[in-house]
């Protein structure tokens, strides 16, 4: 097994799936000649040609709709949005078309499409380019929403997404592209709806997804030095959500902290917290602590931006609060 | 790429070779009778749907094709069985002319288990992939990129199947329409765009909604040839569409057609259709009635007798009655299956 970047893991998944299934193709802004805005699709145009690596105009609603239409005939488009923030332009095609094709036609049509996009703050990209919007998509029945944090999951979940017969929102994070990890070579899939215990612990359950998993692990390492044993759970899949793994962990630790990069209110963490209150209320020794982004449009200035995004230090504080230590 | 200087064709009402289109001698009798019976079927089916709506057998939004029968029949009859069709939310007529089982269509309107969308879709979401009837859609213009995606798939797979995408005049003002037309032309996709210009997007006339009222011109900005046809004349619509379907198939490039027609009823069953148009206007259009005028032409042309016409009427009414009976007999979907179909089960 090789240690490769998150970006390379995604690229490997694309290449492997395109090699074995001629119905898989890539479409999006700058995916071909430009080699990908974030270089995930680097080299793929040369390898697969213009037919299967399709550069689009800047017309997100149009090309997401075209991807969905192609998927309705059984093709398996992997459509890239340059950033998930542009997904708002395409929301009608994602949420009101692709997501509902199966249901509103009584299961007689389906839409096996993947929409890949990076999101996340921390690179001074400001108000219109820094959000993840995970919960916007997770709210919609008919979509599947995943947000892997490590290269092995990135590869395994992208392969699963491409083979899924439903529209999948595959949410990446700008800060993760250069992170490295051990990734199985060749066939490797990770199922949806299964959270992953990234670190075993006994005092508190710390739940996160995407980049916040890395912050959670940093926080856990620091707390470990202070004698606090933290169990870090990576959601990986937001819809479907693996309530069982979360509840089991809370039953063991009796404490829970949820860290999410996006706005603290109404987010994924709200859904996770509600789930745990419903299913593990009696096991909690203290209220759940939620760590989330400050609720402002993302500012430009570096210190302002850093204040918006949750940090390992803020997660450490939250863990201590819930433990009363 | 995209450098071709295509001449932009236009056939206006005046320029249209109406005499040729209307020359009954150009058609086999069977075909003419089929056109007539199909238009009458749409008319009677929709009249019955209106009645069933008023009797609360049908709920929700309910948009009728009455007045547009020549456009419905003339366009669809030009399509090959393995070609694809996309519609808007006004598709009852298109569905039954595309040979979806009328009972399954009526059952869908009734919200029944045996509806073509198993009671999940209703009036706006009729569907039958077996007939390559890729659905009706409730968001104005939303189906247009999807149709272009199917045209993309046709090219990707190197088939000669084309995609007919039907939408109203209102859809030509929304972004999805423009994005889809641009990419259909840029990538040379076999997409036949049919604009059913029935003069109003809900209650707003074309002139009050669109800076360009000659809607066929709207494809021209994207280097897509535009045509305009009298949408009240089934032979004119059919003749033009037939020619263009084959042109799209041959060239693999999109074409835009504006069918000028009129809806007699309101936008939906909830709209009396009177606040925004005059009695005189409605009467003038009814004089051009596609069904009635075609019946007269067939009688005058001695294609059929009044007795034949009566027999067709009877047959059509029987088919409509069968559809209603089928819908009545079908049970409602089981509430226990409510969540079925939210996700496709992975094969």
Structure description:
- The complex is a heterodimer of chains A (325) and B (347).
- Chain A has 325 residues and is an alpha/beta fold.
- Chain A has 12 helices and 14 strands.
- In chain A, strands 3-2-4-5-7-6-12 form a 7-stranded mixed beta sheet, with helices on both faces. Chain A has a 5-stranded mixed beta sheet with strand order 9-11-10-13-14, sandwiched between helices. In chain A, strands 1-8 form a two-stranded antiparallel ribbon.
- In chain A, helix 1 runs parallel beside helix 7, helix 8 crosses helix 12 and helix 9 packs across helix 10.
- With 347 residues, chain B is α/β, with parallel strands linked by helices.
- Chain B has one domain: Rossmann fold (3-Layer(aba) Sandwich), CATH 3.40.50.
- Helices cover 42% and strands 9% of the residues of chain B.
- Chain B is built from 12 helices and 7 strands.
- In chain B, the strands form 2 sheets. Chain B has a 5-stranded parallel beta sheet with strand order 1-2-3-7-6, sandwiched between helices.
- In chain B, strand 6, helix 9 and strand 7 form a beta-alpha-beta unit.
- The longest helix of chain B is centred in the N-terminal third of the chain and has 26 residues.
- Chain B is globular.
- The chains are: A alpha/beta (325), B alpha/beta (347).
- At the A-B interface, helix 3, helix 4 and helix 5 of A face helix 6 and helix 7 of B.
Any descriptors?
heterodimer, A: 325 residues, alpha/beta, Rossmann fold, 2 domains, seven-stranded mixed beta sheet, five-stranded mixed beta sheet, 37% helix, globular, B: 347 residues, five-stranded parallel beta sheet, two-stranded antiparallel sheet, disordered N terminus
Task: Give the secondary structure arrangement, pairings included.
The complex is a heterodimer of chains A (325) and B (347).
Chain A: E1 2-5, H1 6-20, E2 24-28, H2 44-48, E3 53-55, H3 60-72, E4 76-80, H4 91-97, H5 101-104, E5 114-119, H6 134-138, E6 144-146, H7 151-163, E7 168-173, E8 180-183, E9 196-199, E10 204-208, H8 211-225, E11 230-234, E12 237-239, H9 243-253, E13 256-263, H10 268-280, E14 289-293, H11 302-308, H12 312-323
Parallel strand pairs in A: 2-3, 2-4, 4-5, 5-7, 6-7, 10-11, 10-13, 13-14
Antiparallel strand pairs in A: 1-8, 6-12, 9-11
Chain B: H1 18-22, H2 29-54, H3 69-76, E1 84-86, H4 92-97, H5 102-109, H6 143-156, E2 163-168, H7 175-186, E3 191-197, E4 200-201, E5 204-205, H8 206-209, E6 226-230, H9 234-251, E7 255-260, H10 279-287, H11 290-300, H12 306-329
Parallel strand pairs in B: 1-2, 2-3, 3-7, 6-7
Antiparallel strand pairs in B: 4-5
Helix pairs in contact in B: 2-3, 2-11, 2-12, 3-9, 5-12, 6-7
